[in-house]
Amino acid sequence: MTYEGDAPGPIVGFILIGSLLVYPFFLLITNSIVKSVSESNKSHVKGANL
């Protein structure tokens, strides 16, 4: 590396580790919300064969 300003800051590693730890829970929460909204919409549609 010729310019030291190109090196990432010391906190970048912690941010990446935190992101990797939080991401599966984010997907789980998002998936459960979408599933509950989808099931809610199915019960509100009358006369449709879903």
User: Helix content range of the residues, please?
Assistant: 55-70%
Overall outline: rod-shaped
Largest sheet: none
The share of residues in extended strands comes to under 5%
Enumerate how many helices there are, as a single number: 1
Order of helices and strands: H
State the low-pLDDT regions, or none: none
Q: How many beta-strand runs?
A: 0
| Quaternary | single chain
Radius of gyration: 21 Å
The secondary-structure class comes to mainly alpha
**Mean pLDDT figure:** 86
What distance lies between the first and last C-alpha atoms, to the nearest angstrom?
A: 59 Å
Condensed summary:
The protein is mainly α and 50 residues long.
Describe, in plain words, how this protein is organized in 3D.
The chain has 50 residues and is an all-alpha fold. It is built from one helix and no strands. It has one helix spanning 12-44. The longest helix is centred in the middle third of the chain and has 33 residues, at 12-44. The chain is rod-shaped.
Question: Which key terms come to mind for this protein?
Answer:
1 helix; 66% helix; 50 residues; mainly alpha; rod-shaped; 0% strand
